[in-house]
Design goal:
The protein is α+β, with helices and mostly antiparallel strands and 939 residues long. The chain contains 19 helices and 37 strands. The strands form twelve sheets. It has a five-stranded antiparallel beta sheet with strand order 29-33-26-24-35, with no helix packed on it. Strands 30-31-28-36-37 form a five-stranded antiparallel beta sheet. Strand 30 (855-866) and strand 31 form a beta hairpin. The protein is globular and about 85 Å long. The N and C termini lie far apart (110 Å). 47% of the residues are buried.
Length: 939
């Protein structure tokens, strides 16, 4: 009986345990269910994606969260899930398929879209520390939109740089085509092909083709297979007046399978003898430059996170793309700049304008027996990219492999900034651009025309229907890059451009009382800029008028992003925020989000009056007849819609058809990929710069100076206290003292006798063939030489580190580490170099904290034989520079050039520093006070 009672008690305990256990399980399941309901959904990143959370509680950069960072995450998630990407992960131009603007179908893709995908995914890396999306964007770029060097570019290695292509003029209208190729007409020498081939092992071009038929809507496929997706196609081919409504879509791989039986579509466009089966690709320079720009930001952000090594192989790809992007710096047929109607052939770099022109095209025989390539003579302001130029010219991680690449980009950076200065209207807007081939025929320039480095001003470069620079979007895209560049560098030339442009743009922006907004849309131009003579003018004869306003969300985002960088640049370089720009950006982002957020992204209804052109005739020569991939008969008299019969199957077509029938403009709502990416990034940038999402910059920190990662050194810049009493170290502005009570800059320096016994020191250096780097850090000032004027610290670096360059770019930073003010007009510093060919040298002050006009510069010869120097540049200050107060710094950014822009060989120069990419101590530049050496070692 006792045993039975024990069994009963045990059963009761087991039952209680089971109830408790099941209760715990139920609670746990409920907790998991609640977590699943409130947690952000896992993104469809990749088929093999891990289970890590898409939205970490804090980014890898400790940037925290804000309303704006959450917006970025929401839109990023929409882009991954809601129809912006094809099953292959390729970005569609828009979610919607019935879409006619630059591409003529919504589910085409462009190099523009790929570059925005790379930039978006780089921003995701900055916000989360996850760089897999950025790498994936580059992988898809290489897989789908950069033609394979072997499979897609057969015969590329047959290219002859002395015979780039057969010449043909550009005609005025599609009706003037096919145009006649002219055998024997002068075309110049391509000066970069051999350098690129030697650097990369192939003559194939590494650029994105601009247009991709993502779903194979036109049914051409790749290599004329008729079925493959992500196929290369083209549209525009027939002069400046050819709008999208007048184009003839055709395959990039021409096998004569469609179009005419003997020539495919070739005979619609040009006459170049007996047609040959061939491949042809065209890159859009703004997209390839944006890909480099995005990769540069990825590098800067990943470096802040200590993850730059993870993306290093992709930076090499960006540098390679930038190397080939130089083809857009050359005239279309490599004719000399300013040739006009004399028909000369270029001999090399005389055909280089150093700007980003509209495109590069290249092609060849499908059988691999010949190849050709051309550039473009027309350069539009909206395609320039000073951020990409800055990266390729000055960032070692993106240094092109070719011998001439970095030098060309250094020159291009300067030339692009000058173009902006040349084109800035009296109001502040940036006018169209310039061309080396007037009317597309190298015609003689009209009398009295404005010129820029022998290229003629064109208010509507490249295309005229509609005029190419009437769209405010080109203003926002282009000037955002200038403002990014200003943020990165502090360049005063960029600042002046940004100040004037931002003032104009904000004056034309309307924040309505009902919570909506309007930004400029269409622009009207009159007059022309003053001819360029090396310095900007007020361009009092060049005017821009805003004729209409819009709520275009993509352009609004680009514009807001420009203002964000502008305000952030002011905070970074002037220590004040441009509140008007910051607040305007915030208002635009907030109003856009509140008014136009829907379940797929940010979009607004737009009336498309141009859709009546579905029934416009597309010119086809009378003697041409054939079929395209959709089965349409290509013949004279056909319309845009006739050529694209599959549009009649589109679910949105009845709405368009009804509106056209009633004479009204159909209202469409589009979710463009580039626009959603730009909106997401604009919110991310606002978060980063104004919501505590920025990075610490230890370079500006007093206690960081002299420290390096992974090392332990002695420093006095971290004071130690016992209670309230300082027992060691120095506070900012406090003067250290050596054992003999003379004033020094840093207690961990050795005794420096070089100033008092300079001649012996120089002799020792020459005997050893180099300065003794283990002695005192002699870029530090010795205040025993300065007396009561203070102690000075001079730092330096070469911003153009290329061994051969036509520009020496020297940047100096002077800091007063003492307790008294220094009169800057008493200060000079010297950069020692060899003049090489002895030509006259020219000094430029690009920017200085104290003002460019307060800086002086001259070149003087050294006395007698010197170590690696036969002259020096001496930089000084006028009385306008004023005083340098204790604890304050100034910067001076200079350039040295020679008449005729001949090259320097920097490796032989005494003061040249090839390794530093930011301010550093360097004892081969010397500092003087009242003519007396106080730091550095003379050669």
């Amino acid at each position: 009986m006792k045993l039975n009672n024990q069994n009963k008690s045990s059963r009761q305990q087991i039952k209680k345990f089971a109830i408790v256990f099941l209760s715990l399980v139920l609670v746990l399941l409920l907790a998991l269910l609640v977590k699943e309901l409130i947690a952000p959904a896992e993104g469809d990143k990749k088929a093999d994606a891990s289970d890590k959370a898409k939205y970490p509680s804090g980014s890898a950069t400790s940037s925290g969260k804000s309303e704006y960072s959450q917006r970025f995450m929401e839109l990023f998630d929409d882009i991954q899930k809601k129809g912006y990407l094809s099953p292959d992960g390729v970005p569609y131009h828009s979610i919607e398929t019935l879409m006619v603007e630059a591409p003529d179908y919504g589910h085409l893709s462009t190099s523009e879209a790929f570059s925005f995908m790379t930039w978006l995914n780089a921003t995701y890396g900055r916000m989360t520390g996850d760089w897999s999306y950025f790498k994936d964007a580059w992988d898809k770029t290489e897989k789908y939109i950069i033609p394979d060097p072997v499979k897609d570019q057969p015969g590329a290695n047959t290219y002859q740089n002395s015979k780039p292509a057969t010449f043909a003029t550009e005609e005025d209208t599609p009706q003037d085509y096919p145009n006649q190729g002219v055998d024997g007409a002068p075309t110049g020498v391509d000066p970069i092909s051999d350098d690129l081939a030697a650097s990369y092992g192939s003559k194939a071009i590494y650029q994105m083709h601009w247009l991709l038929d993502t779903d194979n809507w036109y049914k051409y496929g790749n290599h004329a297979d008729g079925v493959s997706k992500n196929s290369y196609i083209n549209t525009y081919q027939r002069g400046a007046q050819e709008s999208v409504w007048e184009t003839v879509p055709h395959p990039s791989w021409e096998e004569f399978k469609w179009g005419a039986q003997n020539g495919g579509f070739l005979q619609i466009f040009g006459k170049f003898g007996q047609p040959s089966k061939q491949w042809r690709y065209t890159s859009a320079s703004d997209a390839d430059a944006r890909q480099v720009q995005a990769s540069y930001w990825a590098y800067l952000w990943s470096k802040e996170q200590g993850k730059d090594s993870e993306i290093a192989p992709y930076l090499d790809k960006a540098a390679k793309m930038g190397d080939y992007l130089r083809y857009t710096m050359f005239d279309k047929y490599f004719r000399p700049i300013g040739t006009q109607n004399n028909g000369k052939a270029g001999t090399g770099y005389d055909s280089c304008h150093y700007l980003l022109s509209w495109y590069t095209s290249w092609g060849g025989d499908t059988g691999g027996s010949w190849s050709w390539r051309i550039g473009s003579s027309h350069s539009h302001q909206g395609y320039q990219n000073v951020v990409a130029a800055q990266a390729l010219a000055n960032e070692p991680a993106l240094k092109p492999k070719s011998q001439q690449g970095q030098t060309d980009w250094t020159k291009s950076l300067e030339r692009q900034l000058e173009l902006y200065q040349y084109l800035q209207s009296s109001e502040g807007a940036i006018a169209g651009g310039v061309t080396n081939s007037w009317e597309g025929k190298y015609s003689k320039y009209p009398e009295g025309s404005s010129t820029f480095y022998d290229m003629i001003y064109d208010w509507q470069p490249v295309y005229h229907d509609p005029p190419s620079n009437n769209w405010f979007g080109f203003q926002a895209w282009s000037m955002e890059r200038v403002m990014e560049y200003y943020y990165i560098t502090g360049d005063e030339k960029a600042k002046a451009l940004c100040d004037k442009w931002a003032k104009w743009a904000m004056s034309e922006t309307k924040l309505e009382s009902d919570g909506t907004y309007k930004i400029p849309s269409d622009l009207e131009w009159s007059g022309q800029p003053d001819s360029w003579k090396g310095a900007p003018t007020d361009n009092s004869n060049l005017h821009c008028k805003v004729t209409s306003w819009t709520v275009d969300v993509g352009v609004t985002a680009a514009y807001a992003k420009a203002l964000i960088y502008y305000a952030a640049a002011y905070e970074k370089h002037s220590k004040t925020v441009k509140e008007e720009a910051k607040n305007m950006a915030k208002e635009l982002l907030d109003r856009m989000w509140k008014n136009y957020r829907d379940d797929k992204g940010i979009a607004v209804s737009e009336k498309r009056a141009d859709y009546k052109r579905f029934n416009d005739e597309v010119y086809i020569p009378k003697d041409f007849n054939g079929k395209n991939g959709q089965g349409a008969e290509i013949k004279n008299g056909m319309t845009f819609l006739d050529m694209r019969p599959d549009y009649k199957k589109d679910p949105d077509f009845p709405k368009v058809e009804e509106a056209i029938k009633n004479g009204t403009a159909p209202e469409m709502k589009y979710h463009r990929f580039w626009a959603q990416a730009d909106i997401a990034m604009a919110n991310a940038m606002y978060h980063i710069y104004f919501c505590g999402g920025g990075q610490f910059n230890p370079e500006n920190d007093y206690s960081f100076k002299g420290l390096s990662k992974g090392s332990t050194i002695k420093t006095e810049k971290m004071p130690v206290y016992d209670g309230a009493v300082k027992v060691g170290g120095l506070e900012p502005g406090e003067i250290p003292k050596s054992k003999d009570n003379s004033v020094r800059n840093s207690s961990n320096q050795q005794e420096d006798t070089s100033a008092s016994n300079n001649s012996n020191q120089n002799n020792n250096n020459q005997n050893n063939n180099a300065p003794n780097y283990n002695q005192s850090s002699s870029s530090k000032g010795n205040s025993s030489n300065v007396g009561n004027s203070g102690a000075l610290d001079l730092q330096f670096f070469n911003s153009v580190p290329a061994a051969k360059t036509n520009t020496i770019a020297s940047k100096f930073k002077l800091t007063n580490t003492g307790s008294s003010s220094v009169k800057l007009s008493d200060v000079k510093f010297r950069y020692y170099l060899t003049s090489d060919d002895g030509k006259k040298q020219i000094f430029w002050c690009d920017w200085s904290t104290v003002g460019n006009d307060a800086v002086t510069g001259k070149f003087l010869k050294t006395n007698g034989s010197k170590n690696k120097a036969d002259c020096y540049a001496e930089i000084g200050f006028t009385s306008k520079a004023g005083n340098l107060d204790p604890g304050r710094s100034i910067e001076v950014q200079t350039r040295f050039t020679k008449e005729g822009w001949t090259e320097y060989e920097q490796t032989g120069d005494y003061s040249y520093n090839s390794s530093a990419n930011n301010y550093t101590d360097w004892n081969r530049v010397t500092l003087y006070m009242n003519g007396k050496l106080i730091s550095g070692i003379e050669p």
